[in-house]
């Protein structure tokens, strides 16, 4: 059976602009966590300089932040204090519960980021924190593996507590990359999100995405191919989520 693709347009996302904080929410809006399988949240946020989120609590989610541009300071109850920059991915397994704060401490530049929440397979996990950097050069015209299940990940990826993979790419105009669907559990599903950075993308040749769009891909299995081509005049920055 061939893959089924359904586009989620950028304007169909939840949106709120509070001045200091501009958020577009693919799945969740007003605390509605329906999501797509274990993938519950993709928020694309811009936080203005010297503003941010005070200390707040999370539990029972795998939470990761992908920095597109700018800087974000993270502090948490595990004692981690870090300023995240472009190309960084910060991962928190909230488990039994953590508190953290997130601030743009830069005096003049906004921070642009994706924040993703995934539901783990098991409750009551021990909280865990990890940051890895995936360079611009490694993502350029390549699909870089960023997150993979803990049981089979290595030092090149961040481990997550469910059957879930994330990839990212910076695809220059006219270039193509191919994603090979992962995992042995059936059925598989894939979600693609293209960031609000001006790029355009074709998926499997006949599905076109503009900045902020996403696409649900179903009826796929391990080993199937999903083909991406940058069709605009700007680099297409996008993320691929591959899950059971």
Q: Going across the major beta sheet, what is the strand order?
A: 1-20-17-22-15-13-14
CA-based gyration radius: 17 Å
CATH superfamily: Jelly Rolls
CATH topology: Jelly Rolls
Overall helicity: under 10%
Give the CATH level 1 class: Mainly Beta
Please provide the count of β strands.
22
| Strand residue percentage | over 45%
The average pLDDT value, as a whole number, equals 95
The coarse silhouette is globular
User: What is the first-to-last residue Cα distance?
Assistant: 17 Å
Number of spatially distinct domains: 1
Oligomer: single chain
CATH architecture: Sandwich
**Low-confidence spans: pLDDT under 50, at least 5 residues?**
none
Structural class: mainly beta
Biggest pleated-sheet summary: 7 strands, mixed
Could you describe the 3D structure shown?
The protein has one domain: Jelly Rolls (Sandwich), CATH 2.60.120. The protein has 244 residues and is mostly beta strands. A hairpin with a 3-residue loop joins strand 18 (200-203) and strand 19 (207-210). 2% of the residues lie in helices and 55% in strands. A seven-stranded mixed beta sheet has the order 1-20-17-22-15-13-14. Strands 2-3-4-11-6-9-12 form a seven-stranded antiparallel beta sheet, with no helix packed on it.
């Amino acid at each position: 059976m061939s893959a089924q693709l359904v586009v989620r347009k950028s304007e169909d996302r939840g949106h709120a602009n509070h001045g200091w904080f501009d958020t577009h929410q693919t799945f969740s809006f007003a605390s509605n966590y329906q999501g797509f399988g274990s993938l519950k949240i993709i928020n694309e946020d811009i936080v203005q300089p010297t503003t941010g989120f005070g200390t707040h609590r999370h539990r029972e989610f795998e939470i990761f932040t992908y920095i597109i541009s700018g800087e974000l300071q993270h502090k948490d109850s595990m004692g981690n204090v870090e300023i995240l920059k472009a190309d960084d991915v910060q991962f928190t397994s909230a488990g039994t519960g953590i508190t953290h704060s997130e601030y743009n401490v830069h005096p003049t530049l906004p921070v642009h980021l994706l924040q993703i929440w995934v539901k783990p397979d098991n409750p009551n996990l021990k909280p865990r924190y990890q940051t890895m950097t995936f360079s611009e050069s490694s993502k350029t015209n390549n699909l870089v593996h960023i997150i993979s299940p803990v049981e089979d990940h290595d030092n090149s990826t961040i481990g997550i507590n469910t059957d879930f993979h994330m990839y990212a790419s910076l695809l220059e105009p006219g270039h193509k990359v191919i994603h090979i669907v992962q995992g042995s559990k059936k059925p598989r599903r894939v979600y693609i999100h293209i960031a609000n950075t001006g790029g355009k993308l074709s998926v499997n040749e006949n599905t076109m995405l503009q900045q902020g769009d996403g696409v649900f891909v179903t009826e796929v299995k391990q080993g199937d191919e999903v083909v991406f081509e940058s069709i605009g005049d700007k680099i297409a920055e996008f993320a691929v989520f591959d899950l059971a």
